[in-house]
Amino acid sequence: MESARDPVPFRTCEPGTQPPYDAPAYGSAHKRHPRESLVPLPHTITEITGPHFSPALFPPIPDLSVLNGKAALGERIIGHGRITDEDGRAIPRAIIEIWQANASGRYQHPADQHNAPTDPNFRGEGRVYTDDGGWYRFTTIKAGAYPWRNHHNAWRPNHIHFSFFGTGFAARLITQMYFPGDPLNETDRLLSSIEDPNRRTTLLAQAEGGERRRIDIRLQRGPQNEPETVFLDI
Description:
2 helices; five-stranded mixed sheet
């Protein structure tokens, strides 16, 4: 029997609004997507209440564009936005991890060995928290495009990776920020795995003049079908 104290049911995603786990055109998903039905694991008090992220233990790294007092090469941008739930309420004290390639399209990682130059003054990763109003802000440079082995002459467009954590490690979502007008967006197999083209726009950072680029994050579909952000866990 239902009661007024029962939680509101989870609003499931509309078909085609989130990428499938196995996107045929996206080769990286073929061997790492689930092949069996998912097994639900109810969260206990341990997963629901922690472990908490604290700025004292995980200090913010809000500026990726400067390292040891020296500026990285590339177009400097200020990324910002607001994280809200399905009802438009702010998500405070969420941690946002940021990682990306440098302006030449190369990651600061030993596994990235393609023939683009590294940048000794580019950090390549950062971390910020939302404030009480759900707002976040960071400074970086516009990531460069780079080749990948998905198909012949494949190139990934300019993009920045985001990872969002809520109250603990069990509450993590991953997505990417793209830039409007990049011609490589049209051929990106990851972006095109989202069947609904209108939902792809949730990943496009909007220019607000000067260096500012805004991308808001909505965690779930709203009561009036307001679109949730597309998350790329593939």
